[in-house]
Each structure stands twice: as C-alpha cells, then as structure tokens.
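Data availability (excerpt). The following record was deposited with the supplementary files.
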Amino acid sequence: FRIETKDFTGKDEKDIETYLYKINGEVFNLELAPLVRASLLQTGDGEYVFFLCLHHIIGDGWSTQILISEIVDTYNNLGQGKEAINDSLKVQYKDYSVWLQGRRQRDDYKKAESYWLEQFRGELPVLEMPSYKVRPLIQTYNGDSINHIFTEEFTNKLKAFSERHDATLFMTLMAGVKALLYKYTNQKDLIIGTPIAGREHPDLENQIGLYLNTLAIRTQLEKLETFKSLLIKEKALLLEAYENQAYPFDELVGKLNLKRDISRSALFDVMAVYQNQATLQLGSKVEDIEGLLIESYDFDRKTSQFDISFIFGEYDNRLALTIGYNTDIYDQDLMNRMLSHFENLIDQAIDHETQSLETISYLTEEEKQQLLLNFNNTKAVFPQNKTIIDLFEQQVDGNPDNVAVVFNEKRLT
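Predicted structure:
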C-alpha cells in the first residue's frame, strides 16, 4: 500500500475534482491487494487534500471510524516521539469468516432463514414511483443528491413522538418514508432496505472489515392505516428483523429464486439509512489530532446504488436528510418536492396521529394554490356580439384544413 502524492498548488478547483473523479472511478481487481488507495494532494502552502478510497468488500462505515481513530492516535504518538500503536487483535477477520460459515448449521441460523422466507412469501411488490423519465432497460448507477437540515423544533417533535410510543427515532423515520411512498404510489405492500452493522459480539467492535448486512423490511398497510398504527407495525417488523439479522441478504435473494429484472435492484429499490457512526465511542476523533486543522472536503461522487436513498443523520441536535437518487429515473425538482412532502406529511401525521394516512395532505401551500386556483383559472374573454356558430365559422375560415372531428378511422376537417 502506498500513498500517491500530487502537487496541485495554484491549480483550479476543477483540476482537483477531475483527478478525484478519475481515481475514484478506477476499478479494483479483487484478486490483487491492496483493495485500498490513497492520495495526498498539495493545494497550497500548508494545505492538503487527503483522499482515501477502499472497496466496500474490505470495510464499512464503522470501519472508517476505526481507521480514523487509529490514524489520529498514530500521528499524535509519532509527533511526540513515541512508537506507533500496534496492538494485536483478539480476532482476525478470517476467524470471523470461519465462524460465519460454521453458523449455517446452527438452529438459530435455520430459524432466521425460515423467518425471512416467510416474510417474502407470495407475489412480491414492485414500487412504481411517479417519474417524467423512462426507466433504462439496464440498471444504471448515475446519481446525484440533495441535502436538507430540519429545524430543531421539527427534530424535537419527532423525538417526542418516538418516545411517546416507545420507538427509536429511526423506527419513526422508516414509518415516515413508507407513509410517503404509500401517498405517492397508493401501494399498500412496500419493501425498503436498510443496513445493519452486524457487530453483535464485543470483540468485533474494533475490527476493520465488512460486517455490514442488509435487511429488507416488508410492510403491508391496512385500509385506513394511521401513522400511529404504521409506527407500531414498523417497530415490530424492525425488532423481529434485528433478531434475525445474521442471515445474509445475498443468501435470501438466492433462496427466493427471484426472476431478475436487470433494470432494478434485487428485492427493493429504496434504501433508508440512519448514519450514526460519528457518535460511536470508537476512540479518537478527527478533532483530537495535534497540530493540524482538519475539515471535510465536499466531494460528490455522482453515483447512486439504488433508485432512491434516504440517508438520515443528526447535526447540532437537528435532523439531517440526504436524498440520493438515480438521475436516469428522477430529476432534482421531484427530489426537492419530496423533501417538503416528507416534512409536511410527518408534521401533519404527528399532529393527527389517529387520522388515516389517506386523508392527510402533504402538499405545500404553493402546490395547493396551483392545484386549486391556478390550474382552475380557466376564465376566457369571448366577444359578446358573436354566437358559438359565428365563432365556429371563424375557425373554419382561418383553419379550413385542420382536423375538427375524429371518429374511429374517420377524420373531418
């Protein structure tokens, strides 16, 4: 493993982005180590951009936090003339792999398999979201994202509602996403994916590796479903899924023997994530590094693994949401409206938690104005001294060859 150094002093910001897009887009050969690459780009006197790219097969978001912590500790120790920390691990990733393979024969694994196969018994739903674009025949991963930070008032309202119903904030957010998708599609059978850390044993907390698993949560809404009843249902589904989280998602897809649609992801098209790795107590943070000022570099990958991803987080006691989307299917205008609709729907649903979702509006005031007034403003001025026959004859004189009447195969000018 080596770090590539480049001097971009005096170069334009676009030159840096072009380089980053290029190196980030380079394909890894999974048969050749290392599956990680890094660059240190000098952009000015004492200013650098550090870029680290690793294949998901060797790490996850949790691993990144561990890596940052170890880099900070090593840097600080070397700066103080001490030796770098090199504690041996109790467990190697290969030990985890052996344990995972052996687990297939255990009763709890077979129980989990039965649970997931039962969840996806019968005809599986396909989400049909409104879009102005035609879905490509082969799935693409071209993407973009929009970001929003909600008010502290809205965040506290969500937390209070969650606590009142003995649910986590993520459970409420999942219920909110499914309520929104229901309002958009009128589909009562919905599947959304969500990742889970997969580090159930304490010895895995400080391991770098891919322990992540994906849970597909299938929710079937009832007629006159309320937001409160949907949250109770979502809470039960998530708790059951967590109990059976060790069953690999790829195993489930294989067992279901799905007829693959190469224009879509397997089993679900929408992902919901609550990113809280930064709050994990995994050691030192970026701000603990001595003698350096470190801040994030805004780099948009322009990719999307799924049709839509709802990525939640929390910053300064305020809920944040990034919506990632496939730009070959959806446009930014729809995503911006989706942000507003999500907030409006949850806000109204919490205020009227026993009201059915069917009757709750998510439209903004501007959209209501447009639908109820602007679109219905069809008043037109007609000359008062002419009859309808006079106006018809006027059209005949002005447009004699235009088609006026169509019936079956007959057309009359």
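Summary of structural features: The chain has a mean pLDDT of 91.
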